[in-house]
Amino acid sequence: MRRVGDAPAVRGLLILAAVLLSALFLLLPLVAIFAQALSSGVMVFWENVSNVYTLHAIGLTLLIALMTIPVCLVFGVALAWLVTRFRFPGRRILQTLIDIPFAVSPVVAGLVYLLLYGRNGWIGNFLDGYDIQLMFAWPGILMVTIFVTCPFVARELIPLMQAQGTREEEAAVTLGASGWTVFRRVTLPNIKWALLYGVILTNARAVGEFGAVSVVSGAIRGQTNTLPLHLEQLYQDYNAVGAFSSAALLALIALLTLATKAALQRRATRREAIL
Amino acid sequence: MSIELHHIAKHFGATQALEPIDLNIHDGELVGLLGPSGSGKTTLLRIIAGLESADRSPTPGKILFGERDVTHVHVRDRRIGFVFQHYALFRHMSVFDNVAFGLTVMPRKDRPSKGEIRARVFRLLEMVKLEHFANRLPAQLSGGQQQRVSLARALAVQPDVLLLDEPFGALDAKVRQDLRRWLRRLHEELGFTSVFVTHDQEEALELSDRVVVMSNGRIEQVDTPEALYRAPKNRFVFEFLGDVNHLEGRVKNGVLTCGDAQLKVDLPDGDEELLLRPHEVRLAETFEPGVHLPMTITAFSLVGAEVRVELEADWLGAPWLATVRHSDFERLKIHRGQRLYAHPRRWHRFKDEVVKASQPH
User: Fold this and answer.
1) Is residue A143 within 8 Å of residue A117, measured between CB atoms?
2) What would the mean pLDDT of A196-220 be, rounded to a whole number?
3) Of B21, B28, B27, residue with least CA distance to B5
4) Which one of A168, A177, A275 has the shortest CB-CB distance to B139?
5) Does residue B76 belong to the interface with chain A, where contact is any CB pair within 8 Å?
């Protein structure tokens, strides 16, 4: 007996469509990036990459990602702990609020931050009196990057922690463990894979964020230019090879991230297979 | 260590999970909290443990462990052992680390040395017969083994009281039997005070020194298993502690009538409902004057020490259950569709919640 949708013609057609679409929309652009970046030879690619502005952009991008990750990590764990371990009024609303960065266009987020923290903004105006500038400087970039990436860790953790329930933690407390010991020895080992996965997603997004950052950074070369902004500027200057060299770097970071994720997932599933 | 509860009540939002409860559990006693789901038994256990807090208003309750008032003592300082229904073992730790956990989280000044912890854990693992499984992960053990680990883990910190939440609920019948007996022996050996929650009457009656029967957040009766079974205080307890057959009818001049069924009773005129246990029903091929309860056999089950026979009649609301000796089963040549007569050996009556048991005349 044949199962529904198992006709050879249907199956062939679906496979063909999947392969074709992946090739056209995913693989081909990726190949094109590296092809373009290396179109004038490896030396030119290297010159572009080792350009002082590019190097600064790489540095700033990685620095922002490096600062974003711990903030999102702590925020995500605290939030997931809060909504899965406690019952309080407004819990549902909080869970919906977490998704705002997903729902709102990053450009809108950037504009709102500009409105609030810019020199003419409510909070920015106040801070300006103390000679503190957030917008058009790296703190602004960090702020919007955190805004855009803050749901990733929490979103990874909440379903898992909900599924695992509170019994193990309760057991630990009845055995005399303090709150911190419970977290360190019982909760953390149970969520570490989801946590790592959340960090990887956060990193990917932090490195690649364009919309929100472009609004608040001012894109000053050598000062507030991140790699995606730098790429765009090069492209606007008709330096296609330079732009694609930066693009290749970003793609490389993305590929590395994906490879790490795949490796971690393989390890996690293998661990589960043992159990 | 004895446990005293004074006026413990609990609300979840607007719903009352526990009505104000008073209960005394003696030192070294093994007490079962028995009731259907939603009766508040687990809530009560969790309040004793400190995993849930009792209502503070209108009148605050009080929990005493021996002389010690633990009402406001945090779970981690109550010195209890808690065994969860689904074991709640730390899934990423070996059996050894699970059992050792309570010892390793002690404050440094009280914590035993590494070697002493090792010795103590292995003593406990030997006691639960799992010394060869010390390096396994919980997921590599069967349900019964996991529950034994969970018990060893709870006992490792030498708790004042041991609390068990449906400890055998998730296990199959055979393992359950073994574990029950084993827990009973352990209890007698070590002499700790323990309270366990169950919805299984058999388990409660077999294991407990005293049983607390609960329903709807109330304690219905606290008694030894024998007293509970022989003299249930009310209809709920009677019905909850085993299968029950109902006989409803109207009494006139000392005869209860229901359709074409008749039973001589020594009761005043009026509507009556009599209750009978399956072993209180005798089956015969003939009827006697004053005892005319014709029935048809619809099913029977031969497994067990006695044959369980299901009976129906058009004058009955719900089918009856009778237990018959195998010899009687053969003598009566019982088969489906056979018509027989039921003869009550005795019956119970809970009118106005007053207990009456009587022999038919």
Assistant:
1) yes
2) 91
3) B21
4) A275
5) yes
